[in-house]
């Protein structure tokens, strides 16, 4: 306060005049809680130490487009008959084994929806010599998704019959969404689809502890996985890699996916060899 103002206050006090209170600063308006959380979160990020990328960034396969890797293997695995009896799936006609394409996706979540994407697509078919050809597409960047979808579409023919485990309810709708968002035609539209989960349920629900693929492969093929990364951990493995983490678990996801493809083919052969599924009443008998 200046000397002149102080002198005026003193004179007014002596004369009995009221002395106005010294002006005070207006209180600052309180910020909403969500804005404060954003500010505090940004402050923590700015103060955090810079993330160091892992030295283990090796993703198997050939990089066929920027951020898109292709792995391929041809193995001896349960050679099929020339024609698959599809009575187990309540189809009216058998299918030539050369038309079958077994496929399985690894995704960023299990809930589906437009926010979920496939970061790995595995597909396998029997060659003319009876050997099993497995191919896997893996993206290591978000931008590579369109190239992956285009490559997978090139593996399918007009007469291809898809083979999956719960693919009708999950994998196929998810891919349909991704093709639509990428503004690409959906190559799965109009193709026949043998979803093995449904005939397995019709035959063994209430007999097995559950009808998951892991249970079916154990019961029908004697397959017991060692050091297998559960499918529920696949999203974390890929997201950790995107953030600079090691590729160790991403390679384990690829191993898991390859075993899924082999099991799909094996379960198909075992179930098709049993003929038509019994009515529901006979399953419990």
Helix-and-strand structural type: alpha+beta
Sum up the overall morphology in one term: elongated
Biggest β-sheet, characterized? Answer: 7 strands, mixed
Unreliable segments (pLDDT under 50, ≥5 consecutive)? 280-285
Précis, in short:
With about 280 residues, this protein is α+β, with helices and mostly antiparallel strands. About 35% of the residues lie in helices and about 15% in strands.
Describe the secondary-structure layout.
Blueprint: H1 3-15, H2 33-47, E1 62-65, E2 68-75, E3 83-84, E4 95-96, E5 100-107, E6 118-126, E7 132-139, H3 145-153, E8 161-164, H4 171-181, E9 192-195, H5 197-204, H6 213-221, H7 234-242, H8 248-272, H9 280-284
Parallel strand pairs: 5-8, 8-9
Antiparallel strand pairs: 1-2, 2-7, 3-4, 5-6, 6-7
Give an overview of the whole structure.
By secondary structure, the protein is of the alpha+beta class. 36% of the residues lie in helices and 17% in strands. It is built from nine helices and nine strands. It has helices spanning 3-15, 33-47, 145-153, 171-181, 197-204, 213-221, 234-242, 248-272, 280-284; strands spanning 62-65, 68-75, 83-84, 95-96, 100-107, 118-126, 132-139, 161-164, 192-195. It has a seven-stranded mixed beta sheet, with helices on both faces. The protein has a two-stranded antiparallel ribbon with strand order 3-4. Strand 8, helix 4 (171-181) and strand 9 (192-195) form a beta-alpha-beta unit. The model is unreliable at 280-285 (pLDDT under 50).
């Amino acid at each position: 306060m200046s000397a002149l103002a102080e002198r005026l206050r003193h004179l007014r006090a002596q004369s009995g005049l009221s002395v106005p209170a010294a002006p005070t600063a207006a209180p600052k308006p309180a910020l909403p809680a969500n804005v404060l959380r954003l500010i505090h979160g940004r402050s923590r990020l700015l103060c955090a130490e810079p993330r160091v990328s892992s030295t283990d960034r090796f993703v198997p396969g050939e990089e066929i487009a920027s951020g898109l890797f292709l792995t391929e293997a041809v193995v001896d695995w349960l050679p099929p008959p020339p024609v698959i009896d599809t009575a187990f799936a309540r189809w009216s006609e058998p299918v030539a084994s050369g038309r079958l394409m077994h496929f399985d996706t690894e995704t960023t979540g299990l809930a589906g929806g437009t926010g979920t994407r496939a970061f790995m697509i595995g597909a396998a078919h029997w060659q003319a010599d009876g050997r099993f050809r497995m191919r896997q597409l893996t993206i290591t960047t978000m931008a590579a998704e369109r190239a992956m979808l285009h490559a997978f579409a090139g593996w399918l023919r007009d007469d291809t019959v898809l083979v999956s485990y719960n693919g009708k309810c999950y994998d196929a709708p998810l891919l349909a969404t991704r093709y639509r968002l990428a503004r690409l035609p959906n190559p799965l539209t109009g193709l026949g689809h043998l979803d093995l989960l449904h005939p397995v349920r019709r035959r063994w629900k209430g007999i097995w502890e559950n009808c998951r693929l892991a249970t079916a492969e154990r019961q029908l093929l004697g397959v017991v996985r060692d050091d297998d990364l559960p499918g529920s951990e696949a999203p974390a493995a890929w997201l950790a890699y995107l953030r600079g983490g090691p590729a160790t678990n991403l390679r384990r996801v690829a191993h898991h996916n390859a075993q899924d493809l082999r099991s799909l083919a094996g379960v198909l052969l075992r179930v098709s060899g049993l003929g038509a599924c019994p009515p529901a009443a006979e399953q419990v008998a």
